[in-house]
Amino acid sequence: MPTTSISTSTPPSQPTQPTPPDWSAQQYLKFAPERTLAIHDLLSRTLPYIPTQSPIIHDLGCGPGTSTSALLAAVPGAQLTGMDSSPDMLARARAVLPGVDFVAGDLATYAPAAETDVLFSNAVFHWLRRGERIGTLVRLFEGLKSGGVVALQVPDNYDEPSHRLMRETALNSPSPSPDPDTAPGTPAPAAADAPWLPYFATSGIGDLSNPSRPDLDPIESPREWYNALAPHAACVHIWRTTYQHVLADAGAIVEWVRGTGLQPYVHRIAEGDEAARRGFLAEYERRLRGAYPALADGRVMLGYPRLFVVAVRK
C-alpha cells in the first residue's frame, strides 16, 4: 500500500504507551445479532462433517460465549470447551453457560487433546500476524485425528473503508472520502487539532513487518489457505461472504468496530488523555460519514466481508 505520512513537520515525541486494558464483552455484544450471523453460517456448513452426536468440540476464541451457545444448541450432546485470552470475555461466558468448561489460552500455543473432533473458531485467527496465522492453523489441524474438523471464519476487511480510515485517521492522512457536509478537497485537521498524533508517530501503521502496530494484517488469499490445508485434508471448503449490516449512522459503525478492530488504536492512546481519544474518534467518525452515505431512511450500510474455511482431516 502507499506510504502515508504525518501532516506535521516536527512530530512530538512518542508518549509512553499504557498497558492495553482487557476486552469488553459489553461493547462486543452491542451488535450481537449481527455478529451471530456468521456463526450460524459457519455452523451450518460444519454440522454435516461432525462424526458423532457427542463430539468433543473446542471453541477457539469463544469470546462472551455467543458461539459456544450456538454450538450447544446445534449439538446438545457435545463435550464443549471454550478458550479465550480475555478474562472479561471468559467471565461473561461462564455466567451465561455455567455448565461449560471455559479456559484461558493463547491461540498461537493452544494444544487441544488428541481426541478432539472439532475445532471451531469464530473471528479470532485474524488477530494473529501473517507470519504465524496459517502456521498455527496447520499445527492445530495436523493434531486432529482422522475425520476431525476445523471450521473457522475471519473478518476480511483490511481494505474496507471502515478499516482503511482507522489507519488514515491515526496518521492524519488526507482521505479521499470527505464528510458530505464538508466542501470537496477540505484537508484533514491541522496537527495542532489532532492531539492523538503523538501516540501513533512511531506506531508503524501500514508497515506489515512491524508486529507491534495497531492495524491487523490483511487476510491471506483463499488459495493460500487451501494450499496449506490440502496436504493434510480429505476435503477443504473455502468461501467468502460480504454481510450488509444496516446500522443507525456512522456513529454506530464506530461503536461496532470499538468492540473489535478499533480497540488497538484506542488502547494506544493513554487512558487519561480524553482529549486525544475524543478527537481521534470524532475525526474517524467524520471520515466514515463520507465513506458510508445515508440510505433512503437515513441509516447506513456497513459492508463486512468474512472468509470461511471448513476442512476435514485425512
Automatic annotation (TrEMBL):
Span of domain Methyltransferase: 58-148
Keyword terms of this UniProt record: Methyltransferase, Transferase
SUPFAM superfamilies given in the database record: S-adenosyl-L-methionine-dependent methyltransferases
BP-aspect Gene Ontology terms: methylation
Molecular function as annotated in GO: trans-aconitate 2-methyltransferase activity
Biased composition, class Pro residues, residue ranges: 12-21
InterPro entries assigned to the protein according to its UniProt record, in alphabetical order: Methyltransf_25, SAM-dependent_MTases_sf, Trans_acon_MeTrfase_C
Record carries keyword Transferase: yes
Compositionally biased spans, kind Low complexity: 1-11
Disordered, as annotated region: 1-22, 169-189
Annotated protein name in UniProt: S-adenosyl-L-methionine-dependent methyltransferase
Highest taxon listed in the record's lineage: Eukaryota
